[in-house]
């Protein structure tokens, strides 16, 4: 940002040169991504049976959807009868943003296990909604917190790591 701003100042002849061009930024080391093996993924899903996040993890594992896409998913974009869902956005902070590319906006086929998990999750969510009647904010989210709002990424990551530990699996990033 600084480099671009100084470059613009040079173009406008407000500065004789861009001193930011002389700087060498540090290299960002990329960590190798580790993922669960198919056997480990099955182990995780067996371990989370009955957990409030079971459906979210089933959909994540069976579809490969990104965390932000899962947290922005709305019931209006899910067709349990036909067995598919539509990715129409991603959670960024506390707002849903449009996909950055046309490929990000897509239809995703659901496995039978994912459909069953979502059906059970919907029934549980309706009970939560009734229990939180006065404080429930209906945003139509599939994966909402206990008052209908967005699940905080930090809370999701924390719970995900607890579930991995409980299942005896290595600590990995949700993504």
Top keywords for this entry?
175 residues; mainly alpha; three-stranded antiparallel β-sheet; two-stranded antiparallel sheet; 6 helices; 5 strands; elongated
How is this structure best described in words?
The chain is mainly alpha-helical. 40% of the residues lie in helices and 9% in strands. The protein contains six helices and five strands. It has a three-stranded antiparallel β-sheet with strand order 1-2-5, with no helix packed on it. Strand 3 and strand 4 (95-97) form a beta hairpin. It is elongated, with a radius of gyration of 21 Å.
SSE blueprint:
Elements (H helix, E strand, L loop, with lengths): L1 H10 L26 H10 L6 H10 L3 H6 L5 E2 L4 E4 L2 E3 L2 E3 L8 E4 L2 H20 L21 H14 L9
Antiparallel strand pairs: 1-2, 2-5, 3-4
How many strand units?
A: 5
Query: Which structural class best describes the helix and strand composition?
Result: mainly alpha
- Net shape: elongated
- Could you tell me the radius of gyration in angstroms? 21 Å
Question: What string, H for helix and E for strand, traces the elements in order?
Answer: HHHHEEEEEHH
Strand content: 5-15%
Oligomer: single chain
Low-pLDDT ranges = none
